[in-house]
Amino acid sequence: MSLSIENLRVRVAEKSILQGITFRVSPGEVHAVMGPNGSGKSTLAYALMGHPAYSAEKGSRAMLGKTNILTIPVEKRARAGLFLAVQSPIAIPGVSVISLVRTAYQQIHPDKTADTRNVQNPFLSRRWNSSSMTLPEFMDTMNKNAKTLGISEDFLTRGIHDGFSGGEKKKMEMLQALVLAPKYAIFDEIDTGLDVDALKIVAKGINVLKNQGTGVIVITHYQRILKYVSPDVVHVLVAGKIVKTGSASLAKEIEEKGYKKYI
User: Fold this and answer.
1) Ordered domains of the chain (ranges, CATH)
2) Per-residue pLDDT at 113
3) DSSP states of 235-254
4) What does pTM read for this prediction?
């Protein structure tokens, strides 16, 4: 099941941002979207996920299988298999990492989780479907993925992003992606502000997703994360248009020469 973006035109308020974006991501592929500030990279991410401020114009399509996800609400896009890690995730004091990810998992994978109908606290439920993932199994999955990303288990009981450093927030976004196992994951500048060690860990998470069959869109200014994640396709986005598509070598060219020739 591919994610096929076709003639995507997006407006924010009265301003046209994206001018007809077209490309297709297949399962297990990594596409890098690169471009200078103000080129429309984040607009692409938010429009695909369904941010209400970003309006797709008539004729735009983003097909996930047979579904044009641009026509369905955000929660249905998530259930269809789309995930977005935003550039600056907000803190939610009082909502633990475990609670957030567990609740999201239950909503996105209802066939794999407990039957919690008429149960006031779903985390205390013992009414499991035969095919469900039990709470201990879920915690084992959380802990294993946290270990992969170098996240201490005590972070999982803290408020999501509450008091976390920039690098810790990015790792938490990656943890959510690994546990939720979406069909397609979009990472909006997840490399921003990361030191080399954190960059390698985040890249490791992307490679795990790729190897599990998740299609990935990495939005970035720089080639630095692409030293550790080899993209199958690189797109250069300038002024709302894809002006160049190529292989991983295109990212290296941009690193050396910048975007001047495309502007």
Assistant:
1) 3-91+183-262 (3.40.50.300), 95-160 (no CATH)
2) 57
3) EEEETTEEEEEE-HHHHHHH
4) 0.90
